[in-house]
Specification:
This protein has helices at about 95-110, 120-160, 170-180, 185-215, 235-255; strands at about 5-10, 25-30, 35-40, 50-55, 75-80. With about 260 residues, it is of the alpha/beta class.
């Protein structure tokens, strides 16, 4: 019974096996899911197919030194996954696991139509059913998670807007992060933020006032006071400022 075996490359087998002399593979192309997919075919028609799939940042050529070891018993094929090697790039940028699996499922289906891969084979058909079931299940779970995430973001955005904050603002991100870290709702996070902000602002103003008060000639409200405290009655600001400056100069010279 014909079986289609899929081997996912986990480690470089070429580090384990040396090259074996043999015919060079044939370059083949097939259109699946609207994309041109390139693969290498080492022949051995009539034998069980062995489909080799490369990892990230690799190509079908990864198996050039490995495939010959299996041609005695298998019809070896190595695929350039979408966006790799000589296969086409997806114009929509779809490169999740489900996309790769769908390509392989479609390629297997097309191979079944070939003379050496009869479409009536039960084993290959079962493999396709399992792949399609896996893809549908993973896709539904991913879409469900995305829906939940989108609904949650909309709810948080609306609730935060009720308190006068945008989720995309610095304050909004701080509030959301606090809510996540402390496992509290948006209202409690907003209350914490406003209380913390008010406290921080008050502390800064108090510290600024204390610092300004220690600087000769500058009061917390910006009025020059200097080391001269005996302001004369009716004395203008300019006169008082000048006397204060002179007093500071004398004080500095004396010290």
């Amino acid at each position: 019974m014909l079986r289609c075996k899929i081997i996912l490359e986990i480690v470089m087998l070429t580090t384990m096996l040396g090259g074996v002399a043999g015919a060079a593979p044939a370059d083949r192309n097939i259109t699946v899911n609207g994309l041109n997919i390139h693969y290498l075919d080492w022949g051995s028609a009539g034998k069980p197919p062995l489909l080799l799939l490369h990892g990230i940042a690799r190509t079908a050529r990864t198996f050039d030194h490995v495939a010959p070891h299996f041609t005695a018993n298998y019809h070896v094929l190595a695929v350039d996954m979408r966006g790799h090697g000589d296969s086409a790039w997806d114009p929509q940028g779809s490169y999740v696991v489900e996309d790769y699996v769908k390509d392989i499922a479609a390629l297997i289906a097309e191979r079944q139509k070939a003379a050496d891969d009869p479409s009536t084979d039960t084993g290959a058909a079962l493999t396709l059913e399992q792949i399609e079931e896996l893809v549908d299940d993973r896709t539904e779970k991913r879409l469900a998670k995305q829906r939940i995430a989108d609904e949650g973001e909309r709810a948080v955005t609306a609730e935060m807007a009720e308190h006068g904050y945008k989720l995309t603002s610095a304050a909004g991100r701080t509030i959301l992060q606090y809510a996540v870290d402390q496992n509290v709702n948006v209202k409690e996070a907003v209350e914490w933020y406003e209380k913390d902000t008010a406290t921080t602002t008050a502390e800064r103003q108090k510290a600024a006032a204390a610092a300004a008060a220690t600087v000769p000639g500058v009061a917390p409200n910006g009025t020059p006071v200097g080391v001269v405290s005996d302001r004369k009655e009716g004395e203008s600001d300019e006169s008082f400022r000048r006397r204060s400056i002179e007093a500071r100069i004398k004080n500095a010279q004396a010290s």
